[in-house]
């Protein structure tokens, strides 16, 4: 989720990205500050001041959101949990945690880190508001006054016990710590999260009927987003439970067609992909696997260039692939695949390629297991 958009920079190995929806909310926040908030509070200012201050304040607000997510991410990294990326989007920000924490205590600290950062930013902003107000510098005091209010509000909102908001994760950590059952705690927190989401949706609809169209739509939209996120989290937990006890060796494909590195894409498509139905091909270079080619790689090449393009030029190099062992748990395999945003992982034993685990193969395995009534 949210792996597209624009990469802007990297911090401690964490890729910071802007989702395209972020530009919409950035414009809306800037406009609301410059055209509504500041003119209402300070009607004697000039239009250029309103808009320049609105732009700077909006940028600082989204910097605050980024710091909120970095706080989560740095705590996760300190617990040995990789964080590939953070994405700023229409609802704020989202840190992609590569895997769930193994202990309730880690979950609790990670969840509280973000709101804690927002409270800290709010306190510092409040102090600056007081300093600049005492100096008679109205624009600066107004800027930091709004930042203080919005960051404290952000902390309070995130502590609502609606999973996967921070408050929902705090709730899950508490239930987990008491029950010692991470799966059950996720399901309970997810159910509470769905309840909170429906409350937001009903509140938004109520406001719509009361004539507050923009606020009603926005609150209902937030509720819808929370509902989708809570549902996705419970589905993910159900998937994890189904995968428990199974390994990569049980679902890996062992009959993957090997390609010579000089194989043309046209030959790959017409002799292999269309005939075998396979979507992933190991590439051999001097007898060793040097990478893999997927259908996704092929789609990136214009059809008219297929007869001039080799497998070597479009493959994913072996050093960029995260291989797994046959005995690697399937839950761990899916974590690696999700973290890297890919659809497969090579299975290697004693330095030798022996198969491929794909997302489709895992889904087929689960579907067959369900149809046969196996648990």
Shape: globular
Roughly what percent helix?
55-70%
Written as H for each helix and E for each strand, in order along the chain, the element string is: EEHHEEHHHHHHEHEEHHEHEEH
End-to-end distance, in Å?
A: 28 Å
How large is the radius of gyration? 25 Å
* Major β-sheet strand ordering: 1-2-3-4
- Low-confidence stretches are none
SS field, number of helical segments: 13
| Classification by helices and strands | alpha+beta
The count of domains is 2
Strand content bin: 5-15%
Structure summary, number of beta strands: 10
The biggest sheet amounts to: 4 strands, mixed
User: What's the overall average pLDDT, rounded?
Assistant: 89
Structural overview:
The chain has two domains: 6-243, no CATH class; 248-371, CBS-domain (Roll). The chain is of the alpha+beta class and 375 residues long. Strand 6 (280-285) and strand 7 (288-294) form a beta hairpin. Helix 3 packs antiparallel against helix 4 and helix 3 (104-135) packs antiparallel against helix 5. It is globular. The mean pLDDT is 89. The two termini are 28 Å apart. It contains 13 helices and ten strands. 61% of the residues lie in helices and 14% in strands. A four-stranded mixed β-sheet has the order 1-2-3-4. A four-stranded mixed β-sheet has the order 5-6-7-8. The protein has a two-stranded antiparallel sheet with strand order 9-10.
